[in-house]
Amino acid sequence: MKNQSITIAGETLRPGTMKTVILPSSDLYTQTKLGIPIHVFHGKKAGAKLFVISAIHGDELNGIEIIRRLHLHHSLRHVRGTLITIPVVNIHGFLLHSRYLPDRRDLNRSFPGSKTGSMASRLAHLLIDEVVSKCEYGIDLHTGSHGRINMPQIRSNLDTPGATALARAFEVPVILDAKLRDGSLREAASAMGIPLLVYEGGESLRYNELSIRAGVRGTLKVMDYLDMITLPYHKRSHHKPVITQTARWIRAHASGLIQPVKEITEVVKKNEILAIIHDPFLMNEDQVIKAPFHGIVIGRSNIPLANSGDAIYNIASIKKLKHVRAYIEEVHDEITGNDE
């Protein structure tokens, strides 16, 4: 079936068009004009409509590289349906190396936004109106926040119809059935009935090659699942992603210097030592941070200095430890090219 024309940011694109359109953004206070490039791959044939966006938080850079590599993939020349990508949503935060917009608001707590609200609210409204509302599925690319690193993982509201199958198609070992956060794009998309995957991997202001490769691989697999592209045959995994609703940040119960024992992707058993807290002045005994339950390290603080109460490790609760360990190794080998 032939695709229909689509209109984005005032431009109408006919089927078979690949084009970059500019979404107007708030100007700088110097009167310098700013615009957000939106890339549209509008196939000749009808099919799924998917958006893939990055840098809602301006200091989270991995997603920009994921989208760049996605654009280089040969399959995008023959997309069925419509793919819309935005490498940098929060262009103001990106310029400032900041998670936030210049008004210190978090764009991912400002959805669905409004035409007459704050800068964050206006940008959120624009994104919903021009991109999200014209799609059926979405992928939102993120990293850990300042000083934290995340293992490649998917977070989604699995109550949204179609979200579970979409999350499984991304093929990462851990899927977190996460509660909706007020004002998040995930909440707004869920309210519109749009399955949205939030991909987390790596840390802010740094590239993480493994997380980038996993993000490209996962996005292509989702597009293949939606029949937007056709990937070459690949060996099916013997494992399935683990879905969990429980993840908890483990906090330091004393102040000091943190010596990590466990790294991200490591499987831990209840009461295993995660880290040791040292007194920098060598006056007090070392303290240990232990895992409160069986699980996997999906996030960790990279900052060795901690005050009592600081979040140090993010553990996802998992019972079948052997299963998830084997899946992590399999995915790692495929991403790094070590699969025999």
Descriptive overview:
It is a single chain. With 340 residues, the chain is an alpha+beta fold. It has two domains: 6-225, Zn peptidases (Aminopeptidase); 246-336, RNA polymerase II/Efflux pump adaptor protein, barrel-sandwich hybrid domain (OB fold (Dihydrolipoamide Acetyltransferase, E2P)), CATH 2.40.50. Helix content is 22%, strand content 30%. It contains seven helices and 19 strands. It has helices spanning 62-72, 91-95, 119-130, 163-170, 185-191, 209-225, 321-336; strands at residues 6-8, 11-13, 17-24, 35-42, 49-54, 82-86, 137-142, 148-156, 174-177, 196-203, 242-244, 247-251, 256-260, 267-268, 273-278, 287-290, 295-301, 305-306, 311-317. The strands form three sheets. Strands 3, 4, 5, 6, 7, 8, 9, 10, 11, 12, 14, 17 and 19 form a 13-stranded mixed sheet that branches. It has a four-stranded antiparallel sheet with strand order 16-15-13-18, with no helix packed on it. The mean pLDDT is 94.
CATH class of the largest domain: Alpha Beta
What is the CA-CA span between the terminal residues?
40 Å
CATH topology descriptor of the largest domain: Aminopeptidase
CATH superfamily of the largest domain: Zn peptidases
Number of helices: 7
Summarize this, please?
This protein is of the alpha+beta class and 340 residues long.
List the topology elements.
Elements: E1 6-8, E2 11-13, E3 17-24, E4 35-42, E5 49-54, H1 62-72, E6 82-86, H2 91-95, H3 119-130, E7 137-142, E8 148-156, H4 163-170, E9 174-177, H5 185-191, E10 196-203, H6 209-225, E11 242-244, E12 247-251, E13 256-260, E14 267-268, E15 273-278, E16 287-290, E17 295-301, E18 305-306, E19 311-317, H7 321-336
Parallel strand pairs: 5-6, 5-7, 7-10, 8-9, 9-11
Antiparallel strand pairs: 1-2, 3-4, 4-6, 8-10, 8-17, 12-19, 13-15, 13-18, 14-17, 15-16, 17-19
